[in-house]
Design a protein that fits this description.
With 303 residues, the chain is an all-alpha fold. The chain has one domain: UbiA prenyltransferase (Tetracycline Repressor, domain 2). The protein is built from 13 helices and no strands. It is globular and about 55 Å long. The model has no long low-confidence stretch (mean pLDDT 93).
Length: 303
């Protein structure tokens, strides 16, 4: 059990449900189910594997820093060796790419759209973890990873990604870029101006998300958005603000880290609300993914 916990912490197991939510959003938004069930399962495995790989490589490359600041984590504490982490990270990347290719086959696509997106995602993950996270481009790089994960979910039909799908991916990617910036110095006392700017980027992502159902409706008359969608988005922004504003007012780790956790797991809520905005109230079923994420979060850290 102790060994399982170490690996669960290494891959940030609660956060894996946010990756699943992206794929579920794509499946619902494109109307791919139940016909595309096999492709959906393959994409779920691909996305979860690639996300988990990103977490493993994050800790692999942060080993020296974690020795100084987070000695309790699996690698600096010695519960998992760096060699074992590298092998696991490589295996997860290969698994993700393989299942993306399988999704293309299941969808009957000869353009290898899922495989292409997965390959780009692998490159983005390694660039972020190995280099870009320590530069000013770190938040943008992480946002790009989530942008690509949304696109991965939208490849489920094997057809070109619609215009509204690109806006959907941009909205989520922008939101995550803001979250990443907000979390950048979570282990120390953060800069208030930086947190304010990061919160503004998160808000920009939410504003972009507001336009997605309207664009989808314009392009496809069959889209049936929930009339409550704008109100749900406002409620989501308020839910974030309850944690983000106290963190900005007093930017200590004890406030910033819970705000980051809420924003990260809140992505499941955002995906669910966007699903409702595209397919109606049934899209809110994605919220169910929060239950295992929050339950696991009692024992396994998310940041």
């Amino acid at each position: 059990m102790t060994r399982f916990l170490a690996y669960a912490q290494l891959v940030r197991l609660p956060n894996a449900f946010t990756a699943m939510a992206d794929i579920c959003l794509g499946a619902l938004a494109t109307g791919a189910l139940p016909g595309g069930t096999l492709a959906f399962i393959c994409l779920l495995i691909a996305s979860t594997s690639l996300y988990s790989a990103g977490m493993v490589w994050n800790d692999f490359f942060d080993f020296e820093q974690d020795l100084r600041e987070r000695a309790f984590r699996p690698l600096p504490s010695g519960r998992i060796t760096r060699g074992a982490a590298a092998r696991l990270g490589l295996l997860l990347l290969l698994t993700g790419v393989a299942f993306a290719g399988a999704a293309d086959q299941a969808a009957g696509s000869d353009r290898f759209r899922a495989l292409t997106v997965a390959g780009l995602l692998v490159a983005a993950i390694l660039l972020y973890d190995g280099w870009l996270k320590r530069t000013a481009f770190g938040p943008v790089a992480m946002g790009s990873c989530r942008f690509l994960n949304i696109l991965l979910g939208l490849t489920i039909l094997g057809s070109p990604i619609p215009t509204w799908g690109w806006l959907l991916a941009l909205a989520i990617g922008t939101y995550i870029a803001g979250v990443t910036w907000f979390a950048r110095t979570e282990a120390h006392v953060s800069n208030q101006n930086m947190l304010l700017s990061a919160a503004a980027i998160m808000l920009l992502g939410i504003v972009l998300a507001l336009a997605v159902p309207a664009l989808a409706k314009y392009a496809d008359a069959d889209v049936a958005p929930s009339i409550g969608f704008p109100y749900l988005m406002v409620a989501f922004a308020g839910y974030l603000a309850l944690a983000v504003l106290p963190a900005i007012s007093r930017p200590v780790p004890q406030r910033v880290q819970p705000a980051v956790k809420r924003a990260v797991l809140g992505l499941v809520l955002l995906d669910a609300i966007l699903a409702a905005g595209l397919v109606g109230w049934g899209g809110l079923a994605l919220v169910l993914l929060l239950a295992p994420a929050m339950w696991l979060g009692k024992w396994i850290y998310s940041t």
